[in-house]
User: Fold this.
Amino acid sequence: MCLAIPGKIVEMSPDHFDSALVEVVGVRRRIDLGLLSENPPKLGDWVLIHVGFAMSKISEEEALDQIRTLTMLGEQQAAMEEVCGYASDDLPDQVENARKGT
Amino acid sequence: MRFVDEFRDPGIITRTAEEIRRLAGATRHYRFMEVCGGHTHAIYRFGLKDLLPDNIELVHGPGCPVCVLPMGRIDDGLSMSLQPDTIFTAFGDMMRVPGANGTPLEYKARGADVRIVYSPTDALKLARQNPSKHVMFFAIGFETTAPSTALTLMRAKAEGLRNFSVFCNHVTIIPAMRAILDSPDMRIDAFIGPGHVSTVIGCRPYEWIARDQRKPIVCSGFEPLDILQSIVMLLRQMNEGRSVVENQYKRVVPWEGNRAALRAMSEVFQLRPYFEWRGLGFISQSALRIRDSFAEWDAERRFQVPGIRVTDPKAAQCGEVLKGVLKPAQCKLFGRECTPEHPVGALMVSSEGSCAAYHNYQFLKSSMVPEIHAAV
Assistant:
């Protein structure tokens, strides 16, 4: 019901200032831009579409940032295992706390 | 970037799941509620439960607007389809939802003019194309959908289109979360917050949950990696003894929400004093009605609505499942009297309802069933 899908704006025209053509997996459809009047999207922007309306602009920057964070999640873990494997006994609490993620 | 594939990368999913295992440890049990039905659906569809350790339990929340709609409202809406020269329009999700006298599709089979629309503006278009008929739109949904209905009504008013009306069943998520938190048998540690509702209302309305109730909440996207990352964020908060609102779905959800959408909603709607939720009962100020200034487009005022109330069968334990006290398969009717084909209770009605999602994706792994019952 609250399903929303990303679509790319592929056509805007001055005749339809409150709507745009979007492409979703190769299919084009006209959507309403009325809910983005404060922050209107441009041609080529990605928007989240729900019941024929663009709800929100999708930030590529934030998306890439998220993927980066997630990718690092695993790398940090690998580094942590490496460090914990060094068997140095002088800072056991720190290693233990780091293991717990605190 | 298509904003889909990137969030389904198997390698990153595996590593994120490992991080979840590490953070969850083995010393305590975690109960997280995913508020939104879209999350429930995604969790089952992508088999995310199988990636989580046993000590993380996901409880399925009330965020499925089709499920929580009382059966009587469907009968009320369908009663208007029997008026002469009336076209009843609704989203596809509604078409198989039974009222006491049948589903919208069954009404269509009996001769009513029932049509599926994908957008409220499509219903408006039908009204323009059929000036001799009245087009009624059965509006349903949380804050995600309400602004679209509001804008459609503003357009109808601006055009002076008088053969169009809306039967408003929009509900708001915060009062439902409050009802769940106030329930004495509530046992939830933290929330996976709704993603698309939050594009409209933003993250601030959840602050009381973190501050007063000391429950962490993370507004989450719907791709597998979104949900897993939200679980990582919740576990970190809990392990560090913090409880704040965090926004995992930053690529879509602005912290302040969508002001244009909120303005449209407040221009067209006002809060109802109370509204009935299937499975949860009456919740005060939990639903929207159409303001007097739009009375001409309010189906409830234009038509005689019978105000039907249908009591849910006592044997159905939807309320307990909604509050996370019971798992879907623990309800006495689950998979027996109550199935997606013949739903008895609210949560079996829509594919986003937790019982239907469980039935469609989990229950069919028949080998799992003895395990589920053994765990009960």
Remarks:
- The longest helix of chain A spans residues 60-84.
- Residues 32 and 53 of chain A are 5 Å apart (CA to CA).
- Chain A has a mean pLDDT of 82.
- The longest strand of chain A covers residues 5-13.
